[in-house]
Amino acid sequence: MPCIFCEIGAGRVPADIVYSSPEVTAFRDINAQAPTHLLIIPNRHLVSIADLRPEDAPLLANLVSVANELARREGIADTGYRIVTNCGLNGGQTVPHLHLHLMGGRSMGWPPG
Amino acid sequence: MPCIFCEIGAGRVPADIVYSSPEVTAFRDINAQAPTHLLIIPNRHLVSIADLRPEDAPLLANLVSVANELARREGIADTGYRIVTNCGLNGGQTVPHLHLHLMGGRSMGWPPG
C-alpha cells in the first residue's frame, strides 16, 4: 500500500487541498475536531517529527510558515490556534507520514489530549 | 513584569531544567499533564510560533531537535509522544513566550484539547 499522504501530496488521491507547493501540501482533516482543522505535510515522505535531520531545517520552517499563513487565511490568526504533531503510538499518530495539525476557530482545551 | 520564561532561560528564576544551551532551555511543566511533560523554549524572546521569521529556521530546527533528544532521554522515543504549541487565546497560550510542549509516557487522547 502506498502512503496515503504521499499520494495526496502527489495529487494522486483527492483531498480538500487548501495549499500546495513543490515541497508542502495542506488539506482539511476529514475528521475535523475544530472549525479549522488542517493537516500540513511535506510532500517528501518522512515518518514523523522524529525523522527530521538538521538539513531539514528549511523544510520544517516552511511547514510552520505555511501553518501560520493558513491561520491568517482561515481568519484564526488573531483569535489563536494550536499546532500539534503526533509521533508514534502514545502520541496518537495514525498516519506514519509527518503532519502538523493546525486547529482553531474554537477555544482549545487543556490538556491537549 | 519581566517575562517569566525569559527569566528561566537566563537562569534568574529557578525551574526544573533538563536541558540548557545558549539558544534553548527545557524544563518540566509545573502543571504536568503527562508523565513526561517538558517545555522547550528559545532563550530569546519570541511571543509565539506566529513570530517565527524565515531567518529563525535554524532556531526552530534546534527547538525540535532538542524535543526529539529529550524524548529519547526520557525513554518515550519508542513509545511515542506529542509536541504541541499554543498561539494566542483560543490556542490556550498562557505564557506569551514561544514554547513547545513535549508530552508522553501515557497514551495521548484525541482531540488534542
Explain what you see.
- Two copies of one chain form a homodimer.
- With 113 residues, chain A is α+β, with helices and mostly antiparallel strands.
- Chain A has one domain: HIT-like (HIT family, subunit A).
- Helix content of chain A is 24%, strand content 25%.
- Chain A has a five-stranded antiparallel beta sheet with strand order 1-2-3-5-4.
- The longest helix of chain A is centred in the middle third of the chain and has 17 residues.
- The mean pLDDT of chain A is 97.
- Chains A and B meet through helix 2, strand 4, helix 3 and strand 5 of A and helix 2, strand 4, helix 3 and strand 5 of B.
List the helices and strands and how they pair.
2 copies of one chain form a homodimer.
Chain A: H1 4-9, E1 17-20, E2 24-28, E3 36-42, H2 57-73, E4 81-87, H3 88-91, E5 100-104
Antiparallel strand pairs in A: 1-2, 2-3, 3-5, 4-5
